[in-house]
Amino acid sequence: MDENDLLARRFEEHRGRLHAVARRMLGSSAEADDALQEAWLRTSRDRRDEVDDLGAWLTTVVSRVCLNMLDSRRRRREEALLDDGRLPEPTVVVEPEEQALAADAVGSALLVVLDQLSPPERLAFVLHDLFGLSFEEVAPIVDRTPAAARQLASRARRRVRGAEAPAGDLRRRRRAIVDAYLAAAREGDFDGLLNVLAPDVELRVDQDPAHPGAPLRIVRGAEAVARSASLGGRGGQAAGRSARRALIDGVPGAVVFDADGAPVTILAFAVEGERIARVDILLDPARVAAAVG
């Protein structure tokens, strides 16, 4: 067995635990798979087969890969538009219903970790409280002393406990609102759409194939957006289209598929309170296909 095969075998021995860490950090199995792939590329490139504690080193690598992915996700949320006036590339995770429910079972604490904690707090909490690493092991990963790592985890723990139930309720409410939008759009239910749209809602449509090369189309106001919202016109499902729940940059959204099962539309929602404040629709076939995979 050559060195590459030996290193690959040792990596596989740790895969289950590494995947669990990544899933807790990122919130989905698909993104955890991507994180492990990147971690393996780094491991094989850096040739760390001589590391005394490979498991600890791999945990560090995977944790930092996850932080990079989370930072990229957060930047996309914060960016209104790219320099060329287009919507930023989304991270899309389409999951069957049972997997979506399993993601909820990961715990509403995960939502708090992702959305409210700083990266060092996030790592300290996940690695110590959820995976049992000592603060001596956590400290170099978060670039702190063991005492400082303990303080990070303690601060994160208090915030998680205080927000755990509200965070779970928030995710369920957002999903219900998104589901209501999709149902109303599918049926052409104008009043149903008005019920879930904020008065000043903004709809942004990128790269409509019907108007190639056209700039980003922006529609403002609940009535105008309700008239525009559709999954392919009234009776969209009768035309062979269907929508499936998805996480778009870590928040509830949807992907629309055509009759052949090919993804044709990505819908991302910004929900504020009990209403949808913004809908981003990506229609460019190449970008949709690349994002959904």
Number of domains: 2
Low-confidence stretches: 97-109, 232-238
CATH topology of the largest domain: Butyryl-CoA Dehydrogenase, subunit A, domain 3
Mean pLDDT value:
79
CATH class of the largest domain: Mainly Alpha
Structural class: alpha+beta
* CATH level-two architecture of the largest domain: Up-down Bundle
Major β-sheet profile: 7 strands, mixed
Q: Beta-strand percentage? A: 15-25%
The secondary-structure element order is HHHEHHHHHHEEHEEEEH
| Cross-sheet strand order for the largest sheet | 1-4-5-6-7-2-3
Overall, the morphology is globular
What's the total count of β strands?
A: 7
Whole-angstrom Rg? 21 Å
Percent of residues in helices comes to 55-70%
N- to C-terminal separation? Answer: 34 Å
Number of helices: 11
Nutshell version of this structure?
This protein is an alpha+beta fold and 293 residues long. The chain has helices at residues 3-26, 29-46, 54-78, 97-105, 108-116, 119-130, 135-141, 146-187, 190-196, 222-228, 285-292; strands at residues 92-94, 197-206, 217-220, 242-248, 251-257, 263-272, 275-282. The longest helix has 42 residues, at 146-187.
